[in-house]
Design goal:
The protein has 190 residues and is an all-alpha fold. It has one domain. The chain has helices at 2-14, 18-25, 41-48, 50-73, 78-93, 106-116, 118-135, 138-156, 160-176, 178-186. The longest helix is centred in the first third of the chain and has 24 residues, at 50-73. It starts with a helix and ends with a helix.
């Protein structure tokens, strides 16, 4: 029973849109109707600047990190840990509180992976940073880090259920970035 509650709690926590809440609290435009229309940190940066974006980024990361850390603390099975991780991520993409229209999931997935293992989080962050330093393109950095995340989980943790979920999360991240990929291929991504 506790396992099911953990998964539900992870989804509900993931469903809290940091971008929308930060914009409301700071008196900014709704990120779903301004800029790119995506309720995520990058769009909040366009709308409200670095401070609003940093708060959004932290909130999105924490809603992935907290449920996974709770599951780790309760010493759940690898399968339940994977389900909790996926539920938090899906909550961000399809939030029950905001009409099932959420963000792309980069910060929330990072929080999930960081909660699973800090070395996995460090490897993903290092990959993101290295690609960003070379390209100066945040979406490309996120895509490359997403591609490598399942490999890092496999090499560092070896938990099959979490590797499968990481593959699913990576595929969904890539799908959510399809417009970014099109712009990258056309040489138009900022």
């Amino acid at each position: 029973m506790i396992d099911g509650l953990l998964v539900i709690m992870a989804y509900l926590l993931g469903s809290i849109s940091s971008a929308i809440l930060v914009c409301r609290i700071m008196g900014l435009a709704d990120p779903r109707s301004e800029g790119s229309g995506n309720p995520g940190a990058t769009n909040v940066m366009r709308i409200g600047g670095k401070k609003a974006a940093a708060i959004t980024l932290l909130g999105d990361m924490l809603k992935g990190l907290i449920p996974v850390l709770i599951a780790q603390f309760l010493n759940v099975s690898p399968l339940i840990l994977a389900l909790v991780a996926f539920a938090a991520f899906i909550g961000h993409l399809y939030p029950v509180f905001f009409g099932f229209e959420g963000g792309k999931g980069v910060a929330t997935s990072f929080g999930v992976f960081l909660g699973a293992n800090w070395l996995v989080g460090l490897a993903i962050l290092t990959t993101w940073y290295a690609v960003y330093k070379l390209s100066k393109i945040s979406s490309l950095s996120a895509l490359v880090a997403a591609i490598f995340a399942p490999l890092y989980i496999y090499l560092i943790m070896g938990l099959q259920a979490l590797v499968y979920v990481a593959v699913l999360i990576s595929v969904m991240l890539i799908w959510r970035h399809k417009s970014n990929i099109q712009r990258l291929l056309a040489g138009e991504e900022k």
